[in-house]
Amino acid sequence: MTEQWRSNNQIQLLINGEEFYPSVFQAIAQAREEVLIETFILRDDKVGLELHQVLTEAAARGVRIEVLVDGYGSADLSPSTLSALSEAGVRVLAFDPSKPMLGMRTNLFRRLHRKIVVVDGEIGFVGGINFCADHLGDFGPMAKQDYAVQVRGPIVADLHKASLALMDETSRITRHHKPWLTERVPLEADSAHAKMLLSIRDNKNHTDDIETHYLNAIKAARERIIIANAYFFPGYRVLRELRNAARRGVEVTLILQGMPDMPLVRLCSRLLYNYLLRDGVVIREYTTRPLHGKVALVDHHWSTVGSSNLDPLSLSLNLEANLVIDDTAFNERLYTHLAQLAKEESKSITLQRVLRGYWWRAPLIFLSFHFLRHFPAWIGLLPAHSPRLKPWTTVNETAPGDTPLNAEKSA
Question: What is the pTM of this model?
């Protein structure tokens, strides 16, 4: 790991799209120089259209705008939307786009799963929330429960640098971070002096940085651990350290999906329940909305918010970004919310319930666990490809000069 801790940052927790989107759109509406956006999913729904509007208005003021979307997650963007953004002066890039084969998207692995927004080099957003309407409560019963943070301070330079490291691969532009100090609405910070670092995961130089931060924090835990994670299927080391923490008296609570957006994901997580419950790990399944969050806290100072699930795709294949935060006030803010979520909106999973029928499921659990854990390594044996960044003016158009990421940033 080569990350650096940055001190004296402001940070505010944003819960669900209802808090995230207004904050992002307001920041873009105030932009004077530059807007950088990375997202896995951008859709042509009411959220996407509102983003389109604020970006177009900013571009008309002369703001430089670059949007990087994932070629798989955002494959359904319409040509009219892409053309309109391009005509307005917005530079739209796709990470590893691919034409469907027999109507199916085949570029399933090594995705750009990061969600980062940087405005004028002075305000940043990091989390798990995409730009689509299913992160809003009025979407219906399948609206997602998710988290992001808004930050200001020295950490924004690292967000700016990380985004440009991907986006400038197509243009070979060398730019340096500088804060364009403009008058903005004051940030209602949960903490005004937080210490934090940006941890990324790629497939070359930072293959296990995020997982290592989790491991180190869990090993050091003395009082409490709460992990709220949508797709929970971590490796042996994380599972072992969670059990070890519970054995030494740490209160370990996992908040997992009880109302899944993908039932197969919850089935995979449940394969681990018996292993964890028998050593005292508390498991709560959140049932109000599909859980899409990727947050955690340890004791009274360590916490993390970002895009990385604790599953094989996020830990072994995707490009991810998490903020690791060392701050008591923010930790307490997150704890208050997660404790309420676990107590009032989740159901408890008991060992007795899990053991029912365990005798015939044990072989299936064993085989499934080992298959899923080794799956990323097997994918790595397939013929290698270099994920490309492509200026995306229309979905199925191949622009000249498609640029592969260099070896340092490729899968």
Answer: 0.87
